[in-house]
């Protein structure tokens, strides 16, 4: 019985050691960063996957920097990390490894070589990335009158036949007392009055489909265009 129970005890001890709090687990390297300076005029800071750091989530990180410069060549470097939260850490110019525990907060951080700050300097951001800017609003010009004419043109002056789906600002000049300008299509129905002359700007979102612009007073005064994705 003793011969059978001893391996079982050893197995339990081994399992307890592997699962003990603070022991290494998959994923714990996500907050480990690797920096290097040299050889030559190179400076890098990379994540556990080897990708150059451009943005990080806030939190605590372990940063290990390797100074790979060769002082005997007459060119020396160091690695200087600074930014919000009082971070201001620098290695010496001696070759070797340096490890820091750093807490990054929202903001922009810089790492550089103090001996060559113009050639060897990079930045990265920490925090929630700002949303991408909305796509630009494209401009169109519509016109009805004088006489029996109706047009919708791009800024280049060409007649609209096909457009990309998106946001548009359409400035309409109604120069007729007998017709109006009516834009109709998926999700859009905008029109001027038939009698008054007026100028108006509509901000609309055009979706994929077929659109028409016409006069409500004279339906033969009509043109169409397509909107594509």
What is this structure's SSE topology?
Blueprint: H1 2-18, E1 32-37, E2 43-46, E3 55-56, E4 59-67, E5 80-83, E6 87-90, E7 96-104, E8 107-112, E9 121-126, E10 138-144, E11 150-154, E12 162-164, E13 166-174, E14 182-185, E15 188-191, E16 198-206, E17 209-214, E18 222-228
Parallel strand pairs: 1-4, 3-9, 10-13, 12-18
Antiparallel strand pairs: 1-2, 4-7, 5-6, 5-8, 8-9, 10-11, 13-16, 14-15, 14-17, 17-18
Low-confidence stretches: 1-6, 8-28
Order of helices and strands: HEEEEEEEEEEEEEEEEEE
What is the name of the CATH topology of the largest domain? Immunoglobulin-like
**Average predicted local confidence, pLDDT:** 88
Task: Identify the CATH architecture of the largest domain.
Answer: Sandwich
User: What is the CATH superfamily label of the largest domain?
Assistant: Cupredoxins -  blue copper proteins
CATH C-level label of the largest domain: Mainly Beta
Number of E-type strands = 18
Write out the strand line-up for the largest beta sheet, numbering strands in chain order: 3-9-8-5-6
């Amino acid at each position: 019985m003793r011969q059978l129970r001893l391996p079982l005890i050893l197995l339990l001890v081994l399992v307890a050691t592997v699962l003990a709090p603070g022991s290494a687990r998959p994923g714990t390297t996500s907050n480990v960063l690797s920096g290097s300076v040299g050889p030559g005029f190179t400076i890098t800071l990379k994540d556990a996957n080897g990708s150059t750091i451009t943005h990080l989530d806030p939190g605590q990180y372990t940063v290990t920097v390797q100074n790979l410069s060769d002082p005997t060549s007459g060119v020396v470097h160091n690695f200087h990390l600074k930014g919000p939260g009082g971070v201001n850490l620098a290695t010496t110019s001696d070759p070797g490894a340096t490890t820091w525990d750093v807490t990054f907060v929202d903001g922009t951080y810089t790492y550089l070589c103090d001996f060559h700050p113009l050639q060897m300097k990079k930045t990265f951001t920490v925090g929630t990335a700002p949303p991408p800017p909305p796509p630009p609003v494209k401009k169109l010009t519509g016109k009805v009158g004088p006489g029996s004419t109706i047009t919708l043109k791009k800024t280049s002056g060409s007649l609209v036949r096909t457009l990309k789906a998106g946001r548009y600002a359409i400035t309409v000049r109604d120069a007729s007392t007998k017709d109006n300008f009516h834009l109709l299509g998926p999700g859009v129905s905008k029109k001027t009055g038939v009698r008054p002359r007026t100028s108006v700007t509509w901000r609309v979102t055009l979706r994929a489909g077929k659109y028409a612009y016409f006069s409500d007073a004279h339906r033969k005064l009509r043109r169409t265009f397509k909107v594509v994705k």
